[in-house]
Design brief:
alpha+beta, 14 helices, six-stranded antiparallel beta sheet, five-stranded antiparallel beta sheet, 581 residues
Length: 581
């Protein structure tokens, strides 16, 4: 009988494992979403953040160094252009100044005459061509003494000429702003003081601005660039293109007003402005060479690179997001499978422990079933003897037949009750929680061990508090815990003799079950290890060391707790704490 019950329990156990494995291999999407969606989301965010942050940092650093280096390259190119223009313009101006100085330092006897001025004018034209427009000689009062060609208008004789003469004499050289004439076009004048025969003169030479314009036009300018020669007040003297207008007012730097050279161009690039401005003084002139270039054109490569980098970062983030989503989903599925595998292993372990406990009770249960079976066999044999004696004996012993049948029926019900309890205990663990009272479960478990107390060596005592609040537990799991604890108590007591007490009580928000025995107790050095897997004090081959570990795991899953108190020689008590619903 017991063997058949064990076999039935093992078959149910194998069937449950097979069913669970089929369920494990068929995890539905809805289960994944509801149970592991939070885990997948956290893994996705972590993976994505860990991947995208270095990409953003690398992109920002690369962008910073690219923009810085490219701006330096653009500014260097503009510097080279404006320095080249400055050098060419200074060469043109300096060549004309040197020619005038040569004429002034080698005056002829007829220096102040019209013929001498005409002769010098022709010398200049032979050097500079038609860009020389006129040559005029003034006396110390600013009166026009001689000139060439004859079409030159007379110089004003009022007081306005005196500041001009004063600046020329003070500086030793003076260059005027560009003037516009309807017939001769744009020109500028170089004034040079001359002393001859103890007389002071001023030699005025007017030159066309065409060479200056050609220099500006010959520079390697971008289509969006504009270049100007401006005076101290910011007025345009020469522009290229010719119709270009200043995009903003140019302030003349007084540091550039001296006669010393200014070899380094000044760069103005305000964040809110739309242009890059470079300016540099033209030596020996009151002019500045000013270059403007639109930022949108100068930094076009930066803007293109910015758009490309944004697109690349977006594409990289998209790819990283897809990969992170895929990896997190796969990992969440893997964790789900691992959790279910772990749960299945726990269930197998618990069921195995139950069957092991059932095996330990097999001898006692066999004796418990054997007694009623012996009575039933004896009564059935007696009835068979009466039947063999004949009909008269049957009629006379009908009352005894009834008594025998009632005994057979009573002992049969007893056997049936025992087998039902064994089948109930041997069935696979059902994890579904129910709201129940613990006392009913305790009574069923104690009844399984009732045969052990009939011999007199073992005493079972139950003190169950009435009207305990209900708890939400799995009855089969609670049965498993109690059977493990009772079996441990039985194993600890010598020859199974002693007493086991099971009590229930209310402690705060917990229903507490105490399982006590008067065995030898647990040494203090072992109390901290009793719930560790595979720890046992039983002889080799008798214990697996998993019973209390299983009890601990079940109680933690039920949000309860299990503790132990023990004194050597006094016995052991396990306390089970079940949270009240």
């Amino acid at each position: 009988m017991v063997e058949s019950i064990l076999s039935l329990g093992l078959q149910d156990h194998v069937a449950l494992i097979s069913k669970k494995r089929r369920h494990l291999m068929d995890v539905t999407v809805s289960q994944y979403r509801f149970q592991y969606r939070s885990l997948a989301s956290k893994m996705f965010l972590t993976t994505f953040a860990v991947s995208i942050i270095p990409l953003l940092i690398l992109g920002a650093v690369a962008r910073y160094y690219f923009i810085s280096s490219y701006k330096v390259e653009v500014q260097q190119r503009l510097k080279e252009i404006i320095l080249n223009g400055q050098a060419q313009l200074e060469n043109i101006i300096q060549a004309r100044i040197i020619a005038l100085r040569v004429l002034a330092q080698n005056p002829s006897a007829s220096f102040g005459t019209k013929s001498a001025v005409s002769e010098n004018f022709q010398v200049l034209k032979s050097i500079f061509g038609d860009t020389v427009q006129s040559l005029v000689l003034l006396d110390s009062q600013g009166k026009q003494v001689a000139w060439s060609p004859d079409t030159v208008e007379d110089t004003p004789s009022d007081s306005s000429i005196f500041p001009f003469l004063q600046r020329t004499n003070e500086r030793g050289l003076y260059i005027t702003d560009v003037a516009t004439d309807k017939t001769r076009g744009n020109s500028f004048t170089i004034a040079l003081p001359v002393e001859h025969d103890r007389k002071k003169w001023v030699l005025l030479a007017a030159f066309s601005t065409d060479p200056l314009t050609r220099v500006l036009g010959g520079l390697d300018l971008e289509p969006a660039a504009r270049i100007f020669i401006v005076n101290r007040t910011g007025e345009v003297q020469v522009a290229f293109p010719a119709d270009a207008a200043l995009p903003e007012k140019v302030a003349y730097d007084e540091r550039m007003a001296g006669q010393e050279d200014c070899a380094v161009p000044e760069i103005n690039e305000s964040p809110e402005g739309s242009t890059i401005c470079l300016k540099i003084r033209i030596t020996n002139t009151p002019w500045m060479l000013t270059l403007f270039e639109e930022k949108d054109h100068a930094y076009a490569a930066i803007y293109d690179a910015r758009r490309s980098s944004i697109a690349a970062v977006f594409l990289g983030a998209l790819i990283l997001g897809l990969v992170a989503a895929f990896v997190s989903r796969r990992l969440a599925h893997h964790v789900a499978h691992m959790d279910q595998e772990r749960q299945l292993m726990n269930e197998q372990l618990m069921q195995t422990a139950k069957l092991a406990s059932l095996g330990e009770m097999a001898a006692g249960i066999a004796h418990e079933i054997n007694n009623p079976l012996a009575v039933m066999v004896q009564e059935a044999g007696w009835m068979q003897d009466l039947l063999d004696d004949g009909t008269d004996e049957i009629r006379e012993n009908i009352p005894e037949f009834r008594v025998a049948l009632s005994r057979i029926q009573a002992h049969g019900k007893r056997c049936r009750g025992i087998t039902h309890k064994l089948l109930s205990f041997a069935r696979p663990v059902d994890h579904r929680a129910e709201v129940i009272q613990l006392n009913s479960i305790l009574e069923n478990v104690v009844e399984l061990y009732s045969h052990r107390s009939q011999g007199g060596d073992l005493t079972f005592t139950t003190v169950l508090a009435p009207d305990l609040p209900k708890v939400q537990v799995s009855p089969s799991e609670v049965e498993q815990i109690l059977v493990n604890l009772i079996n441990n108590s039985l194993d600890a007591m010598e020859h199974g003799a002693g007493s086991i007490a099971i009590t229930t009580r209310l402690h705060g928000h917990y229903v507490v079950v105490d399982v006590s025995d008067n065995g030898p107790g647990i040494p203090k050095e072992h109390l901290t290890k009793v719930f560790d897997p595979f720890f046992t004090t039983k002889p080799v081959g008798k214990g697996t060391g998993l019973g209390l570990a299983i009890c601990y795991g079940i109680m933690k899953k039920l949000r309860g707790d299990i503790t132990v108190t023990s004194e050597t020689g006094q016995g052991t008590t396990f306390h089970l704490f079940f949270p009240v619903v």
